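Batch job 17 of 40 flagged for manual review because the log was empty.
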Amino acid sequence: MKWTIPNVKSEVILSYQENGYQKVLDEFQQASSINIVTYNINTFELETNLIKELRKVDSSTPITLILNIPARREDYINKKTGKVDQGAVNNALIKIKYTLKVLERQKFGDLNVYFNFDNHAKLIMTDRVAYIGSQNFSDASQSNFELGVLVNDPDSIVDINSKIFGVILNKSIRYATSDYIIVMEEIAGIMKDVLKSIREDVFTWVGDEPYIPDIEIFDMEHASFQREKWEEFKEIHYRFEDIIEKIISDYPSEFDKDKARTKVCHLSNLVKGFVDELNELAEFETRAAEPMMWKKFRELDLGDNMEDALEEATYHMRDYKQEKFHEIERKGTDLIKSFDYIEECIKEIEMLIDEIKDAMITKSVYQNIELINNFE
């Protein structure tokens, strides 16, 4: 079976001690998409210059990488003994884990990794230029004589993408071991951003540096409370809880489920406590404060004292607010501490997940049995 693209305009390149596809690399920053097919990559982190080039690509640019894995075998059964060759399995596992470590999705913008264990092709392309040849997307291959062609013709690029890259992609298996980590980091990041925004609305920094250090206080006269932000935070928190339960289910022996559930429960109580503490104030700020002020103004306005009436009505509303919600103001210090507790709680849950990252990779490797071995 073969696929043919006739009449391709190209430039033949023989390279030695450099990249034959350098023109493609130079296009990475301007590319709308990047597609790479390679047999292997460098797995030693300090020498992954080509991978570092991918990390510089804008996060809006999708990168699709298809590769084989060195050291993987078609069959891990020792033909002489009929038993599993555990040494070969472990060697493949180590190679795979090093490869996946280099390709952890969170280190990139939009990287999608696929495995194809029948692949020996090499294709490095953007939406505008393509290299097809013998050179891998590997720093080590620069030291070899490598031969390939460089294609710039727009019509040929479209054909190569659909008829060559597309065929290999359709016969490849997507790798997604770090999904939990990615999602958790995204959710934790959103939670932190929303929390920071809420905190800036509710609290005020006062002080006169360098003589009086800045301190964070709850000033009811300058505090605002947007219900939408809290609703957003609570919704994200529910997603956070769901993923924690899925991780506990999938990694019962690796993940400290008791500690995680304690942290999640603590986080839930803190969130609920905030809502309970500030909800009444929010109701007053959004629904009652202004009508109260204007009602008092109409009572006091005699036609020739509008400014005085408005000022007195404003004071009336503030006095009511102060009397009604003075307990909340007194609890300002506790509220600030609660914000700190929530932030710390999120960090601790992230740390728990980070601790089992290696276990996630290992389990994913074994779960996707067709990716690395052929035994049970």
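Reviewer: the log was empty due to a logging misconfiguration, but the result itself is present. The longest helix spans residues 257-300. Unflagging and moving on to job 18.
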